[in-house]
Amino acid sequence: MIRKFISKLLRRGAPTAPRARLDRAASGPVVVGHAEHRIEPRLVSSNAVRVTRTLQEAGFLAFIVGGAVRDLLLNVKPKDFDVATNATPEQVQHLFRRARIIGRRFRLVHVMFGSDTIEVSTFRANQVENAETDVHGRVVRDNVFGSQEDDAARRDFTINALYYDPATQNVIDYHRGVADLRARLIRMIGAPERRYREDPVRMLRAVRFAAKLGFEIEAQSRAPIAKMADLIANVPAARLFDEMLKLLLSGHALVSLERLRAEGLHHGLLPLLDVVLEQPMGERFITLALKSTDERVRRGKATSPSFLFACLLWHEVLKHWEEIKGRGELSMPALSLAMDRVLDAQTEALAIQRRFAADMREIWGLQPRLERRVGRAPYRLLEHLRFRAGYDFLLLRCEAGECDAALGQWWTRFIEADANARLQLQTELQSTSTGSSANPKRRRRRKRRAEGAPAAPTEQGEDSSEDR
Ligand code: ATP
Ligand code: MG
């Protein structure tokens, strides 16, 4: 009874007045009812509904917001749910048993239900006039609370500024986002140039959403991107890294990178992308790596950022490895130096975290070791913590024609075989191979590189790689 009364009150407080028309009324937002949007209730997270209901029962406004509403309207199951409310972070925290306030620049509340987390943010104002900015106009602090309308205006694209109230099943639309969703357009809210200046990451986001949803970037939102691309350089590395990770693990990485190139966003943007997109040598390998990551994401399989970054930078490592060996360095120490160089150049700008960098080194370091298949070496590799990643990486290299397919096939059989069959595989190898290294046939470029390496696997080689 009380609940009904309160939600009635709330509905009165919230901008309702259902209107079927999608054009924006001068006086307020458009409210799109269920008959029109037909959001599937089974796609809506029950935890998100619990959060909005609890907040509403306590007298606050609360809506599901952002990407989740966009995806629901497209009849796609959202990967996560965000809630926006007029309650302050402290008020939100008090209402839930397992909730904690996070973030400094933007204070948010994480409400936890088992392994599921609902992110709750307080309506924020887009106080650009008074906000603290850097010398390029990038907003560095904007933690001022505001009204729901303010909150809608500070969001990036019209399709990301929709509010869904599970209680009334209304979608509240301040910027004609529903119309843009239907027209399949990514449209910046407000003056695009100003919004990109406030936060240059929005350029990357425009491309990411266009690629992910198969939408076009609306002409005026698109026009300034090419000339403003350089502003990305002022964005803190950790933030860029997060955004790039979202892009690369979106399930649409290949298309996203193609679009970045088409928008002129790849040049002088991130060292990683410069390397990746301007290096024809590794193109086939990288394309395959991105395709396989996209497929994994779409099938809901786990994906590892380290593996992906190891793929993206592999040809850069090869280039340096070759060069260092050319100066007379032994193969394995040369590889280690090449990895240092590549990671040093990247970590500063992309903030590849230490954890990822360590894994990447392991994956790369395993590549020459996977060529050694006699004696104890392959058994030791099977026990290596990153063996699986190294082997998957090898398969990609084989698929890209960078090493003999027989090498990958041999490992596939070796992994599956029992003890006797393993011995048999090693014996076969020695009888079919001229040298004990059983090195596969290589392309000319790799052959030259291999000359610096010992012909047969040596303990020294193995040790030096394990020392890393
Ligand atoms: P995804 O499905 O990829 O998570 P999303 O739209 O939910 O997409 P998030 O990065 O999770 O994207 O951000 C949540 C919401 O916060 C966005 O929908 C948008 O309204 C707002 N937002 C995020 N980043 C920005 C930004 N840089 N500028 C303005 N608004 C932003
Ligand atoms: Mg999201």
Can you describe what's shown?
This protein has helices at residues 2-13, 34-37, 46-57, 67-73, 89-95, 148-153, 177-183, 192-198, 201-213, 219-228, 237-248, 253-262, 271-277, 283-298, 305-326, 331-350, 354-369, 377-382, 387-399, 405-416, 419-432, 444-450, 459-466; strands at 30-32, 62-65, 82-85, 99-102, 108-113, 116-122, 132-133, 139-141, 162-165, 170-173, 185-186, 216-217. By secondary structure, it is of the alpha+beta class. It has a domain at 1-183: 2-Layer Sandwich (Beta Polymerase, domain 2). The strands form three sheets. Strands 1-10-9-2-3-6-5-4 form an eight-stranded mixed β-sheet. It has a two-stranded antiparallel ribbon with strand order 7-8. It has a two-stranded parallel ribbon with strand order 11-12. It is elongated and about 80 Å long. Mean pLDDT is 83; it is low at 1-26 and 434-468. The site of adenosine-5'-triphosphate has 12 residues, from α9.
